[in-house]
Amino acid sequence: MSITIQVLSGDECRTVLGRTSLARLACAKDNQPYIVPILCYFDAEGDALYSVAAAGRKIEWMRANPKVAVEVSEITDRYHWVTVVAFGRFEELTESVADDHLRRRAHELFDQRHEWWLPGMQKPAPDAPAQTVVYRIRIDELSGRRASRARE
Amino acid sequence: MSITIQVLSGDECRTVLGRTSLARLACAKDNQPYIVPILCYFDAEGDALYSVAAAGRKIEWMRANPKVAVEVSEITDRYHWVTVVAFGRFEELTESVADDHLRRRAHELFDQRHEWWLPGMQKPAPDAPAQTVVYRIRIDELSGRRASRARE
User: Fold this and answer.
1) Which of B29, B71, B145 is nearest residue A24 as measured by Cβ atoms?
2) DSSP characters for B87-131?
3) A2 at interface of B, judged by CB pairs closer than 8 A
4) How many CA atoms, within 13 angstroms, populate the side-chain half-sphere of residue A98?
C-alpha cells in the first residue's frame, strides 16, 4: 500500500482555490499563531482571496501583523487528498473611495455564492453591519500537494 | 433566518477534540504563520494532542518556536457547525528514556485509530522511519463555538 505525493503547479493550486470556499486562516501575534475557519473567494484576476468577518481577535491580529497563511483542502480519504497553502498579506477594504472598486469586487464574489455565513462571524452579517470587515488576502506564494494511490 | 452562536465550555471543547482526528495546525516563524492539515489524537489524561510527521518545514518551525494553534471543526452546513481552537506548545517526543512512556502513549493512540496517514507527511511512515517525528501539543487554552439554527 503506497501513496504517491505530487507537487502542484501554481495553476493547479489556483484551480483548487477557485472551486473551494471553505478555508482555514492563520494569523500570528508575537509569534503565537491563531487559526480559524473562514469562507473566502478566490479572484484569479487579482491573485487574492476575498472574505468578510465580524470585528474580533483575528481582525485585530491581522491589522497589527498582516502576514497570514490560508489553507484549503479536499480530503476524500487517506489515499486521495489535495491541500493548498497560500502565504499572503491581509488588506482591509475600507469604505474609502480608493477601496470602493475592491469592495464591489468582494460583494460580487460573495453574491455569486449566496453564502453569507462564516464560522468566523459572531452573527450573520445583516444583524451587525457596523462591525463587518471586508478584507482580502494578497497571495505572495502558493504551494500544494496531491495524494493518490500508487499503481502497483 | 438567524443563527445562534454558543460558546463551548472546556469540557465541550475536549469532547469535540476527542472524536475528531483531522485538524489544522498553525505554527509561526518571524510572525509569518504557516498552516497544515494533520491527523492528531487527543489524550484527555495529559490534555495533549499527539501526532507524527515527516521532518520538514512545520517541524523545523515548531522546533524554533513551539507556540502553535490547532483547529478542529465539524461543519454540517451554514447553520450547524462546531469549531474548537487550542493554543498550545509543541513538544517533540525523542527516543530518549525520559520520553519513552510518552512515545508509547502516542503509538497506542495511533494504533487505536489505524490511521497512519497524514497530509503533513511526504511519505507513508513505514517508508521513511528515520525521518519520522513523534510529537505532542500541550494544550494551554481552549475555546470553541457552536452554531445552530435559532428557533423563531
Assistant:
1) B71
2) EEEEEE--SSGGGHHHHHHHHHHHHHHT----TT-SS-GGG-GGG
3) yes
4) 4
From chain B residues 13-72, the ones with a CB under 8 A of any chain A CB are 22, 24-37, 65, 67-71
Return averaged pLDDT per consecutive 10 residues of chain B, 152 residues in all: 86 95 95 94 91 90 98 88 96 85 82 57 45 92 91 58
- Closest residue by Cα to residue B76 from B138, B3, B151: B3
The whole-angstrom separation of Cα A44 and Cα A47 is 5
Selecting from B65, B87, B124 the residue whose C-beta is nearest the C-beta of A3 gives B124
Q: Which residues of A touch B71 (CB under 8 A)?
A: 24, 35-37
CA–CA separation, B98 and B20 (whole Å): 29
- Say if residue A44 is exposed, middle or buried (CB neighbours under 10 Å; 0-12, 13-18, 19+): exposed
Of B28, B81, B119, the CB nearest to A83: B119
State whether A36 and B87 contact (CB < 8 Å).
no
Q: CA-CA distance, B103 to B138, in Å (whole number)?
A: 14
Environment class of B13 (CB within 10 Å of its CB; exposed 0-12, middle 13-18, buried 19+):
buried
Q: Is the dihedral of CA A115, A117, A120, A121 positive or negative?
A: positive
Give the model confidence (pLDDT) of A128-150 as tens digits: 444 789 999 999 999 999 999 87
Contact A48, A138 (CB under 8 A): yes
Alpha helices in chain B (DSSP H): 10-19, 57-64, 100-113
Query: Predicted ipTM?
Result: 0.85
Say which residues have a Cβ less than 8 Å from residue A97's Cβ, sequence separation at least 6.
none
